[in-house]
Design goal:
The chain folds into 4 domains: 118 residues, Rossmann fold (3-Layer(aba) Sandwich), CATH 3.40.50.2300; 171 residues, P-loop containing nucleotide triphosphate hydrolases (Rossmann fold), CATH 3.40.50.300; 73 residues, Helicase, Ruva Protein, domain 3; 52 residues. Helices cover 46% and strands 13% of the residues. Strands 2-1-3-4-5 form a 5-stranded parallel sheet, sandwiched between helices. A 5-stranded parallel sheet has the order 7-8-11-6-12. The longest helix is centred in the C-terminal third of the chain and has 20 residues.
Length: 449
């Protein structure tokens, strides 16, 4: 679903001078930016967690947390976030030191408006912020700050040919993000091809990736170019890279080092020019540590790693994703259906082990069975069935924790209520009430001889 409007840059402005803070906020809002003012470092850190800025502009000299301390904390929490520092003439040496520590730049007070705007544009460009309608990421439907952070990180890699490894559960959008990076980069007009490294035998995968000459494989009467040559000039996505056989790991390593492929049955190396993006559900670094994946290849493929969040960590996107699926169904069939608010609440409270792909499947299946413009919640429950368990309420989660905690205490003490109550720092009467509330009987935990 494409955005009809251009996203405004989000800038966090920090200064303990109320007058200057107000002036900067007014100036930047007049330029069309989304501005969040903060009167000090602690307030800025709290705002950054909620606001997720594309850029921070901060005064250098503040109390009790100065700009240097704020810079360090921001770098620790959000390594890619750019920070511009404002300084008086007497503190320029401190500002120079701050740039050596990772600040994007500094400006002296009084701040020249044009110089400020120019430095903001440079910082936003380097950070990967897009203000052009973001066609490259049009496939992503989100308002999640966490996913926005991942998209900005991905965009920063688009102009590079360095290895990019995407990690995430099934259905989180790894291939979609790989295509987005391809569209955002200089190879966008060239082919984008993908293959799973875990769905074929060694020889078949060798042929699919690197090609083969006629007669190199049983029954192969014609030569085959292979994915790298077919995508020459473009991008290749190697999905399930952790399942790449050991022999082909070495062959891929040589391909990356030599920028050339050797088809099966050939000793000649054929030059190729492709950008490789890899994807995996598993932690490939663990495979390296276990000796199951070549470390040298891993570091080439994973110069940058991006972990896509599961749907359970971006539940605010569920209504948007549902609306997107309903819109697509309407375009495909000409029939428009909607979910009731109760239906959306049901979906938002469900667990989605299959993530976005599972959510889309449930919505499509429900709409296919629906007979009314507003889908009954009973039909949605029926479709969900056992495919998704509901997230517990706060009270249910608290009760589950309490029951587990009490059970553990009784197991440790062998059913000795006095000892368990002391460990829990509760009196015996209250402890007995807790056991009764959760239907736990101390006798069941006493050791039998």
């Amino acid at each position: 679903m494409k955005s009809a409007t251009t996203r405004r840059a989000k800038i966090l402005v920090v200064d303990d001078d109320p007058g200057l803070l107000r002036l900067l906020t007014i100036r930047l809002r007049a330029e069309g930016h989304d501005v969040e003012p903060a009167s000090g470092g602690a307030q800025a850190l709290a705002a950054a967690t909620r606001f997720r800025p594309d850029l921070v502009i901060s005064d250098l000299r503040m109390e009790p947390m100065d700009g240097i301390a704020l810079l360090k904390d921001l770098q620790r929490r959000w390594p890619g976030l750019k920070v511009i520092l404002l300084t008086a003439h007497g503190t320029i040496p401190d500002a120079v030191q701050a740039t050596q520590m990772g600040a994007f730049g500094f400006l002296t007070k009084p701040v020249d408006k044009q110089e400020l705007l120019e430095q903001i544009q440079r910082a936003l460009k380097v950070s990967g912020f897009q203000d052009d309608g973001a066609e490259w990421r049009a496939g992503f439907v989100t308002r999640s700050p966490l996913l926005e952070e991942k998209l900005a990180q991905a965009h920063r890699t688009a102009a590079s040919d360095q290895g990019l490894l995407l990690i995430g559960e099934e259905g989180t959008g790894k291939e979609l993000l790989a295509r987005a990076v391809h569209l955002a980069g200089p190879r966008q007009l060239q082919p984008f091809l993908s293959i799973s490294c875990g769905t074929a035998s060694d020889d078949e995968l060798d042929s699919e990736l690197f090609g083969h000459l006629a007669g190199a494989l049983p029954g192969a009467t014609m030569s085959h170019d292979g994915l790298f040559r077919m995508a020459n000039g473009g991008t290749v996505l190697l999905d399930d890279i952790d399942e790449l056989p050991a022999r082909l790991q070495l062959k891929l390593l040589r391909t990356l080092q030599e920028r050339a492929v050797r088809p099966l049955g050939s000793v000649e190396a054929i030059p190729v020019d492709v950008r490789i993006i890899s994807a995996s559900q598993a932690d490939v670094r663990q495979r390296v540590d276990a000796g199951q994946f070549r470390g040298e290849l891993f570091y080439l493929l994973a110069a940058t790693q991006i972990e896509l969040p599961p749907l359970s960590r971006r539940r605010e996107d569920i209504p948007l994703l549902v609306a997107d699926v309903l819109s697509r169904i309407a375009d495909e069939t000409g029939i428009r259906r909607t979910l009731s608010p109760e239906g959306l609440e049901l979906l938002a409270a469900a667990e989605w082990p299959g993530n976005i792909r599972q959510l889309q499947g449930v919505v499509r299946q429900t709409i296919a069975l629906a007979q009314t413009p507003v889908v009954p919640i009973e039909l949605l429950r029926q479709t969900l069935g056992g495919s998704a368990t509901l997230m517990p309420t706060f009270d249910e989660a608290r009760d589950d924790f309490a029951r587990g905690y009490l059970t553990q205490l009784l197991q440790v003490t062998g059913g000795n209520v006095s000892q368990a109550a002391r460990l829990a720092k509760r009196n015996r009467t209250d402890f007995y009430k807790l056991l009764s509330r959760h239907a736990l009987v101390p006798e069941d935990f006493k050791q039998r001889h």
